[in-house]
Amino acid sequence: MTKTRWPELDETATSLRLKHQNHVRSFPEEELDLDHSQWEDIHVITGALKMFFRELPEPLFPFRFFQQFVEAVKIKESKQKTQAVKKLIQQMPKPNQETLKLLFSHLQRVLAFSRKNLMSTQGIGIVFGPTLMWPELDAGNMAVNMIYQNQIVEFILIESREIFNLDRK
């Protein structure tokens, strides 16, 4: 396994891989040349990241939490909503929590360059909402679910410093 500059990401990726290995379809290992010019295009990298999350047998936000997050994002009072979302994330399996923290920390850096990359919190919510969470059974209205998926990711992105204690060491 290739090591990255972020040891905690390596550890989290390993944990996720182990957690889902019994559920993932087996494909032959593919050697990737990360020095190849195709990886210079940020859209290719983002697409690969989204594909990784979409192909998990269970989303990063586990199925059993979907409706609870929908209810939490409906809370009107901001501090109460932040605490409800933070509590739900803390109830998730540790690998999911750690991956969310790293992902949202990275997305904060993406937002820091929003004037250059034209990505807003709303845009990131639209791109990553359906990628990170979806209901196990799509018995409801898909359009309504997508609105909630986007709102949840957008809210977590806005409140990620508080939710994940990003400013605290």
From TrEMBL:
Protein keywords: Cytoplasm, GTPase activation, Membrane
Membrane topology: Peripheral membrane protein
PROSITE patterns per UniProt: RHOGAP
InterPro entries in the cross-refs: Rho-GAP, Rho_GTPase_activation_prot, RhoGAP_dom
Record Pfam families: RhoGAP
Cellular localization per UniProt: Cytoplasm; Membrane
Location of the Rho-GAP domain: 1-164
PANTHER family: RHO GTPASE-ACTIVATING PROTEIN 15, RHO/RAC/CDC GTPASE-ACTIVATING PROTEIN
Name the UniProt record assigns to this protein: Rho GTPase-activating protein 15
